[in-house]
Specification:
- It comes from Aphanomyces astaci (Crayfish plague agent).
- The protein folds into three domains: about 10-385 and about 620-920, ABC transporter transmembrane region fold, CATH 1.20.1560; about 400-575, 3-Layer(aba) Sandwich (Rossmann fold), CATH 3.40.50.300; about 930-1185, P-loop containing nucleotide triphosphate hydrolases (Rossmann fold), CATH 3.40.50.300.
- Helix 3 (about 50-60) packs across helix 7 and helix 9 (about 200-220) packs antiparallel against helix 13 (about 335-385).
- Strand 2, helix 18 (about 495-510) and strand 3 (about 515-520) form a beta-alpha-beta unit.
- The chain is α/β, with parallel strands linked by helices.
- The chain is built from 39 helices and 17 strands.
- The longest helix is centred in the N-terminal third of the chain and has 51 residues, at about 280-330.
- Helices cover about 60% and strands about 5% of the residues.
């Protein structure tokens, strides 16, 4: 249950809602302590995903069959009411702000007249009216932003929910997880930002025509036309460039999706990548995609910055055109009153022009993202219609209730209990649940976990062994009591013969005795006599079917023993079933073991099992320095240089405005204005290049740090979704949002500085009001700055679970649909989405809270300067008053945006902070005991290993500090060229032995030597390049077969074709055959064959086969075994073979038996079989295996 308090917005009075007074307690709280989950409110009922999806469906249902823009149209129709309110408020602001220049003109008139000709009272009335107009106009505009915040959040919710719901109905191979992740994490954010920018599409359209109409009425229609046309040309050019950039954005997003997909594959297969020593090659692959992305990013950002700068200087060009036509064309004298009134009109255009560029860019990006999502949805619909088309015959099913266990187990990042019950009501554990655990032989495993079945699994169940994952997935299929048909796709292949036999007898023939079961077998053919019907398939066709008695003579090619019709039940589990005898699992008795595998306490929060949020509120200065250090220059020097350039350019801008007071100053104004525009251009481009350089370096450092991170202390405890979040949303902040926010922040900050200097110099008495203004700004911003980073972190922390959920869901689509859990996953996804969006909305409204208060203070400063002008009109002078008034009326636009810009940069810096945190992860192998760097010289190891003798000397290992030893004082010697079979019950330590050999986990004590060299003294890259493993779970990458065989791309084609022929794939695929993501267009056996081909290519002296043929059918298994013997069964290759099927290691020279992390038997197969009551003897007997 969520710890968030209920929604609060809907219960607030209208004025409190608009002025965001309901957020005041949150900021007071944030100033005293770090915010936590329970401080943030739920969304209002009308803003939840389920309500919004229903609302959207009414319009989407009639729009999605039309032209590709239908998604945009459907969204606009869904939220037409909110968009109308935003437009109305924007128009009201545009109309009201037009009164500022006439009031400034009246005040200038008061200042220019002598004391005897006018009463000060009228001047004060003008000043009061100017203050009121300023306050009311910005309040209306800020109110539109409040509506926009809810609108943009709701649009993002609709889009993310739409992508997830469509993904749940998507065939497994119909889309790329990289594309979906990009749409969820990036495209939805672009739609959010696009709708946030909507007011700034409306305001310029209304404001600018009115402004130049007023200028024309004051200075002559020719002047208004000249100024308006100049601005129109620049803005038209800006619109053209923005549209072109939007088209480029499509290519950029495709490049981003390709990089994300490559990164996802790299992280998903990180264990195999490390053991093959391919980190550099896969890193280079991602980096090359990143370079292509950055090339597009550079072009896009450069064009965007040119467009933004053009619109920034557009008002200056427009004012220049107005003055030139007025003075030169019409021959009028330029008085200070006319000059500054014209400047006041043009200054109103500055903010709309600046933000018009932002709005056009963001709306264009939003439309492009909407088209991408539209294309995805259409592709899903087509894929669903074309999924497994029936080309001949007919197919009937008399049931719709199915349970399913896939060949590759799919597990969620939740408790073991929830993985088995699969979202059924598990508040009270039933007898059936206990029976399933017993049948799947899970009780001993659960007893070894401190949290029992409440243990939270890591990504893909990484904290379980392969056999444990398979049995949990099988237990899920058995637990579904209402299933009429149970589909089991070779779930026993990852189990040793003893466990497989017991699971088959107690589970498939016991728990599922009353069910229709379709069991696919690629091994364990000794179980065939127990089948009612046997179907033999070959090449996708049924070649034979019938009972075992009628089929026996045709099954001679399969390896199965003649066994009795019953499997002896294990006796060792009787005492473990005692805790389950009572229907009430919470009851205890004296004979119940302390380590009860079924925990009686409620499970931990499953929505975010590994959620970690930084406890502090502030972004450290070190983060800013680290960011600028990434540019290649010292961070402090970079900040000083950029600040100096902006200070110089702003000084020139002020000088140019001050020169515009008379006809004689016109010759000075024009060159100063041109110089100011050139400096504005230069500073913007420099800041942009700096940001892009920092983004490139940060990604490179982040990727290298993550790829080099240790498996047990990083990948085993960090969800893949959270890691991907660093490479998607966080990197998007650094790539796209940081440059825009940083440049805009600098512009606004120095504009505010210019306003302060001008007002202070022209009206010294206004300094009296500046002091309290600064104090209030500081106080408000301090409170905001203490709270905003915490809100950003909370929002980011709750976005990651949704991304992880979407990624995880895509991997388990077949299981989800088989269990008819699509609706539940939609509901669960919406729950995570609502939680994430509640934080996003509060985070965004917090910025609006700050803006509203800054705008109110700015209106107060306008009143102060206006009153000072009237009060000191005798001494201030018309030029000083004109500059002060025209500048201070811009304060409401720039002060709030300067402070908000600082907050936005701080918000983006939290993304940098998270990236820097990952960059600081200690690399694996850092504790090696050898020379500097933990490696011997490369020259000394050039021919190592030459023989392949492996020795474990009193070796112990634990995965992480505080955990029990996984290997305990292991001592053994494997002779060079020897073939050693490794077996043992699930959890015995087989995988730990391999982790120790490849140093994915460092030693707790003891050492491992290969040819007399302590592997702890060998550089990891060298060590892993000299060893070869064929993993239990085949890992392939999208791309060519050539790349999958040799990612280093250093092997010639002849050698590649040779290994393909050895594994019998040469007639199936070519070197340029394009492997789909996760090998979706290859069968499980073909993927494993490809992995075996890699091993053959490396020609290592030490080869490890980690249950390498567990997922391959019998015929292919025999071919592979023959291939392995032909290539590896000679004296110069040492082979360590792990297999659940005992008969596959009976031809080994010696067999190693592990139990509880210790060596219990190690001798020849004959010697071990001769040991009465021996562990291996028992395993072989259960498997029906005997020496040939």
């Amino acid at each position: 249950m969520s710890s968030q308090p209920p929604a609060i917005i809907d219960r607030q009075p209208w004025l409190h809602r608009v002025l965001l007074l309901w957020l005041d307690p949150l900021f007071r709280l944030g100033a005293t302590r770090p915010l936590v989950d329970s401080d943030i409110w739920h969304l209002g009922a009308q803003d939840t995903a389920v309500r919004l999806s229903r609302r959207f469906a009414r319009h989407w249902g009639t729009a999605h069959d039309r032209r590709p823009s239908s998604l945009v149209r459907a969204v606009c129709r869904t939220f037409a009411r909110e968009m109308t309110v935003v437009a109305a408020l924007s128009v009201a602001y545009s109309l009201l702000v037009q009164y500022q220049p006439p009031l400034i003109h009246l005040l200038m008139t008061v200042v220019t007249r002598s004391d005897d000709t006018i009463d000060d009272t009228s001047g004060y009335w003008y000043a009061a009216l100017l203050a009121v107009v300023s306050l009311v106009s910005v309040t209306i505009l800020d109110s539109s932003f409040f509506v926009t915040a809810q609108l943009a959040t709701n649009v993002k919710t609709v889009v993310m929910d739409l992508v997830l719901s469509q993904s749940l109905h998507c065939p497994d191979a119909a889309t790329s997880s990289g594309d979906v992740i990009t749409m969820v994490a990036v495209d939805s954010t672009r739609l959010f930002v696009g709708f946030v920018a909507l007011p700034w599409l409306v305001v310029p359209v209304v404001t600018l025509p009115l402004l130049y109409t007023a200028i024309g009425s004051m200075m002559g229609w020719q002047v208004g036309v000249a100024g308006g046309l100049t601005l129109l040309v620049v803005m038209a050019g800006g619109y053209y460039f923005a549209h072109a950039a939007g088209n480029l954005r499509h290519d950029l997003m495709a490049a981003q999706a390709a990089r994300v997909k490559a990164t996802d594959e790299l992280l998903a297969g990180i264990r195999v990548v490390k053991m093959y020593g391919w980190e550099a090659s896969l890193e280079n692959r991602v980096t090359s995609l990143r370079d292509a992305e950055l090339a597009l990013q550079h072009t896009y950002q450069f064009g965007s910055e040119l467009n933004a700068i053009g619109l920034l200087v557009a008002p200056t060009l427009s004012l220049m055109a107005c003055v030139v036509v007025y003075v030169v064309g019409l021959g009028h004298a330029l008085t200070p009153t006319v000059a500054f009134t014209a400047m006041a009109y043009v200054n109103i255009a500055r903010l709309p022009c600046n933000l018009f560029a932002f709005a056009v860019m963001r709306v264009t990006e939003a439309v492009t993202s909407a088209h991408r999502i539209e294309t995805f949805i259409r592709s899903v619909l087509k894929a669903i219609l074309g999924e497994l088309e029936l080309v001949a015959g007919h197919m009937e099913a008399t049931t719709t209730r199915v349970a399913y266990a896939s060949q590759e187990p799919w597990l969620q990042q939740t408790t073991i209990r929830s993985n088995i019950t699969f979202h059924s009501d598990n508040a009270n554990i039933s007898d059936h649940y206990a029976t399933v655990l017993s049948a799947c032989q899970l009780l001993p495993d659960l007893a070894s976990f401190s949290q029992g079945d409440c243990t939270v699994l890591g990504d893909r169940g990484v904290n379980l062994s392969g056999g444990q994952r398979a049995r949990v997935a099988l237990a899920r299929a058995m637990y579904r009591q209402d299933a009429d048909l149970v589909l089991l796709d070779d779930p026993l292949s990852a189990l040793d013969s003893h466990v497989a036999k017991t699971v088959f007898e107690q589970g498939i023939r016991g728990v599922l005795a009353e069910k229709s079961v379709i069991l696919v077998l690629n091994s364990h053919y000794h179980l065939l006599p127990f089948a009612d019907t046997i179907v033999v398939m070959e090449g996708g066709r049924v070649v034979r079917q019938g009972s075992f008695a009628t089929m026996q003579q045709h099954l001679t090619s399969l390896s199965y023993p003649q066994t009795s019709k019953t499997c002896p039940p294990p006796t060792t589990l009787a005492d473990q079933l005692l805790p389950l005898a009572s229907p009430n699992p919470t009851s205890t008795s004296s004979h119940v073991r302390t380590a009860n595998p079924l925990k009686t306490r409620p499970p931990v929060d499953e929505s975010s099992p590994l959620l970690v949020v930084a406890p502090t509120n502030d972004v450290a200065l070190d983060t800013y320095v680290a960011y600028f250090d990434a540019s290649g220059w010292h961070g402090i020097s970079v900040m000083a240089g950029v600040g100096g350039m902006y200070l110089l350019s702003q000084g020139v801008v002020v000088a140019a405005d001050a020169a515009l007071t008379s006809v004689t100053s016109l010759c000075l104004y024009v060159p100063l204005a041109i110089a100011a525009m050139l400096l504005l251009f230069t500073r913007g481009i420099c800041a942009l290049l700096l940001n892009l350089a920092c983004a490139k370096t940060l990604h490179r450092q982040l990727l290298h740090a993550v790829v080099s991170a240790p498996v047990p202390t990083f990948f085993d405890v960090t969800p893949l979704g959270r890691i991907l979040h660093r490479f998607t949303s966080d990197l998007f902040d650094v790539d796209s949002r940081m440059p825009t926010s940083a440049v805009y922040l600098l512009q606004c900050q120095f504009q505010v500085l210019g306003i302060a200097v001008v007002c202070g110099a022209a009206l010294p008495c206004s300094i009296v009001f500046c002091a309290p203004l600064v104090l209030l700004v500081t106080r408000i911003y301090t409170r905001f700055s203490h709270t905003s980073p915490a809100l950003t972190r909370l929002a980011a922390a709750h976005r990651a679970p949704f991304v992880a959920f979407a990624t995880e869901t895509l991997r388990g689509l077949s299981t989800i649909r088989a269990f008819d859990q699509t609706e539940h996953f939609e509901t669960n996804g919406r729950r995570l989405l609502d939680k994430a969006q509640s934080y996003l909305l509060v985070q965004f409204l917090a910025s609006r809270w700050l803006q509203m208060r800054m705008d109110g203070l700015s209106a107060g400063m306008v009143a102060a300067v206006a009153f000072c002008c009237v009060w000191s009109r005798a001494s201030v002078g018309v030029v000083g008053a004109g500059l002060a008034l025209t500048y201070v009326t811009q304060l409401s636009g720039f002060l709030s945006r300067a402070v908000m810009g600082h907050a936005e940069v701080a918000e983006h810096m939290t993304s940098v902070e998270r990236m820097v945190e990952y960059i600081g992860i200690k690399s694996e192998g850092a504790k090696s005991e050898g020379p500097v760097g933990g490696s011997r010289s490369t020259t000394a190891l050039a021919e190592w290993p030459s023989r392949g003798a492996v020795t474990f000397a009193n070796y112990s290992m634990r995965y992480r500090a505080g955990l029990e030893l996984s290997l305990k004082h292991v001592s053994l010697s494997v002779r060079a060229g020897e073939k050693v079979g490794i077996c043992g019950r699930t959890g015995g330590g087989k995988s730990s032995l391999l982790a120790a050999l490849f140093r994915t986990v460092e030693a707790a004590s003891g050492r491992i030597m290969i040819d007399g060299v302590d592997i702890a003294t060998v550089d990891l890259a060298i060590l892993r390049s000299r060893l070869t493993i064929i993993p239990q779970d085949p890992v392939v990458f999208s791309g060519s077969v050539r790349f999958n065989l040799d990612p280093t791309l250093t092997t010639d084609d002849a050698a590649l074709w040779h290994v393909l022929r050895q594994v019998h794939l040469a007639d199936v695929v070519g070197l340029d055959y394009d492997v789909a993501e996760h090998g979706a267009n290859l069968s499980g056996g073909q993927r494993q064959l490809l992995c075996i081909a890699r091993a053959l290519l490396r020609k290592s002296k030490v080869v490890v086969l980690d249950e390498a043929t567990a997922n391959i059918d019998g015929d292919t298994d025999r071919l592979i075994q023959d291939t392995l013997r032909a290539n590896f069964d000679h004296d110069n290759v040492t082979k360590l073979v792990i297999a659940h099927r005992v008969h596959t290691i009976l031809d080994s020279d010696r067999i190693l038996v592990l139990q509880d992390g210790s060596v219990v038997e190690f001798d020849t197969p004959a010697a071990l079989l001769a040991i009465e009551n021996g562990v291996f003897n028992a395993l072989a007997a259960h498997a029906g295996a005997a020496l040939p």
